[in-house]
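Notes, p. 3: input format for complexes.
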Amino acid sequence: MHEDFFERFDAILGQSRQFALVCHVNPDGDAIGSMLAMSFFLRQKGHQVKMVCPNAFPGFLAWLPGATDILVYDRDEEQSKIAIADAECIILLDFNTLSRSGVLHNEIGKTRCQRVMIDHHRDPDLDHLACYYSDTCVSSASEIVAEIILHYGADRLTQDMATALMVGIMTDTGCFSHSIYHSRTFDLCSFLMEQSIPYPLIHQRIYDSFSENRLRLLGYAINKKMEVLQDFAVAIISLTKNELESFNYQVGDTEGIVNFPLSIEKIKMSVLVTERADQIRLSFRSKGSFSVHELAHKHFKGGGHTNAAGGITTIINMKTTIKRLKAILGEYDELRYDE
Ligand SMILES: [Mn+2]
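Output follows (339 residues plus manganese (II) ion):
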């Protein structure tokens, strides 16, 4: 499958000069990291590259080399539209279906150029693509971009690419705690380290960059808002718009909160429910074999991976959403708690 990808991707690199790289809504470290590394690679090969995000990315990624080049559709609609309309090839990074690109969906839909998907989510929509590298058994889209760059020669890997890719792999694995399926992930990290990237500094910039408000929000979420269910190995944290605002919420501030309940021994699934402007967002994490992808896909118009997934509901009511979530748990015997 991947030989086929390289054959087609080679042909695209031969024909197209102007690329647009796009990612999913609420971009994370992997979306931004994979996009930046791919942009460096394409520019190194002499191509023109524009990067477009549907909405803002977290501030803890802003220091990444090249991050200021990324167009944010929310902030710069005109330039974002031009970047997509003018592209001779669009590369979709870290998402599996056009609807995940939010407001970019329409703009991409209007284009007639070739599209390439580089992704690691389940159930990708492949019909509209010229070629794809879709693999659910890797840690991240960044891992795939690392494979692609190395395919063209280890000497192509630069320090900026390695930094971006390390951030992508690090953040999508919860700092190497999950979504690691093979030793290859560490082999690739070793290649990245060979570019003399400052690993402790990268870690510090990603994980030790909280505002005081963000840490207090985390403390509040765990201490006051975490509900550990009696009959299920499940914990739920909910945060309303008002609560988020009272901690002066900034994009990215709820990132990682959902992971903490999993550190309780008995917990197999953790859910963070947050109230946003026009929807309620659910973030799922699990330990072991329970697939939060299936649950999010079936009930919350979402999905992702076995141990990490997201979803939404347009029931604009926190209480109703949580009631519904609890009712759904009854379907899953694996989540029952029996001592
Ligand atoms: Mn990812």
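Residues 65 and 208 are 18 Å apart (CA to CA).
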